[in-house]
Amino acid sequence: MSGSPATVKTINLNKVYQNGTVPVHAVRGVDLRVDPGEFVAVMGPSGSGKSTLLHMLGGLDSRTSGEIWLDGKRADTLSESAWALLRRRKVGFVFQFFNLVATMTVADNVELPALLAGMSPRTARERREYLLGALGMTERADAPPAQLSGGEQQRVALARALANRPSLLLADEPTGNLDSRNTRDVLRLLGEVHRDGQTIVLVTHDARVAGLADRVVSLLDGEIVDDGVVPAPRRGPAGRVGDVIELRG
Ligand code: ADP
Questions:
Q1: Residues enclosing ligand 1, CB less than 6 A?
Q2: 51, 173, 223: which to mutate for ligand 1, most atoms within 8 A of CB?
Q3: At 90, which CATH number?
């Protein structure tokens, strides 16, 4: 095991929502460790707690009990504002609502987190050009988000999440709205940043996305029921990554 602290560690993490008087145990006793540079795909049927887990890791949802550690620091006991600061410095998000700033261009949306994290304007611009280029979005750099399709907004959100080279990328269905060509661009970029050392935890139903991961964590009814190393991708005759993961649910 590496000497550096885990990028993510959870200990007996639980989330119970109160639906009126009915408690919904969305995440149950999750112990998860993700080491620096690891790429973990979280899979499982709808309602199994994947989004809730991801939201808690990013501090977007509070835990009911248990511990969350990010880069060796206890995160779940931080104040809202301290967690917001930690998040800004360390975590990039792609969630289902992309939350792009409507009054800024695509380019500025992507550069902003890098500038806020203290990157020089020149480095932030280069990083933005690389990310938008990799996602086939260079031509849309000056557009406002309102003029983009859902799939385009999703790719901008991914570029924004990666702009400041966060310790951790959290992504909920990052290919959910994309056609196959754009999915390929996203897969290629995720592979590249992962090879560069980016730690990634993402929720996906897509076996091609999971096929890029080092590990697949499977949730069922809020519990981890499987946590395994992904076998090396099988290549089909056309050289495409084959479906190596069995989908559940
Ligand atoms: P998944 O991402 O795997 O589809 P979720 O984390 O969205 O699963 O949901 C897990 C369980 O928690 C489900 O039973 C869902 O209905 C419930 N749940 C999710 N969010 C809320 C909420 N805000 N309030 C009440 N129940 C919720």
A1: 17, 19, 24, 26, 44, 46-52
A2: 51
A3: 3.40.50.300
Condensed to tens digits (0 to 9), the pLDDT of residues 103-142 reads 999 999 999 989 988 999 999 999 999 999 999 999 999 9
Does 150 map to a domain?
Answer: no
- Distance, in Å, from the CA atom of 233 to the CA atom of 245, rounded to the nearest integer, reads 9
* 235 pLDDT more than 90: no
User: Ligand 1 center to residue 16 CA distance, Å?
Assistant: 9
Establish if 156 belongs to a structural domain. no
**Domain hosting residue 205, numbered range:** 8-96+164-244
Distance 57 CA to ligand 1 centre (A): 15
The Å distance, Cα 50 to ligand 1 centre, comes to 8
Q: What is the pTM of this model?
A: 0.89
Burial 103-119 (b: 16+ CB within 10 A, else e): eebbbbbbbbbbbeeeb
Domain count, the chain: 1
How many angstroms separate the CA atoms of 150 and 170, rounded?
19
